[in-house]
Amino acid sequence: MNDEQKQQLKELLTHFTEQEKLDLKQQTGIDLDTDLDPDNIDPELAEILIDSGVLDDRPQLSKVTGGDACCSFCGKSTADVGTLITSPTGAKICRQCILQYQSS
Predict the structure, then answer these.
(1) Is 70 assigned to a binding site?
(2) Are residues 58 and 48 in contact, defined by beta-carbon separation less than 8 angstroms?
(3) What positions does the entry give for Zn(2+) binding (predicted)?
(4) Which of 40, 71, 76, 79 counts the highest number of beta carbons within 10 A?
């Protein structure tokens, strides 16, 4: 994971509120600040995020909160999963899939 990709992951993590982070930690035991720390991230998870297009060499992650957008991984719409994070290449990922990849 290069420095640009680490910065992108840090940006992605800013899309989670502190309450969401706390809720996820209580429900799943996953601490987003620790488990997705760009400087200590599991190489396999980093590769998944890079290969999927969620992280690449071009910044510009954005949020999608409405409309017909769907997660590129699970296929669920924003109505089902809430906010999606979109990469410059158009790949979209929901919080549930981020957590699923981290826990597998």
Answers:
(1) no
(2) no
(3) 71, 74, 94, 97
(4) 71
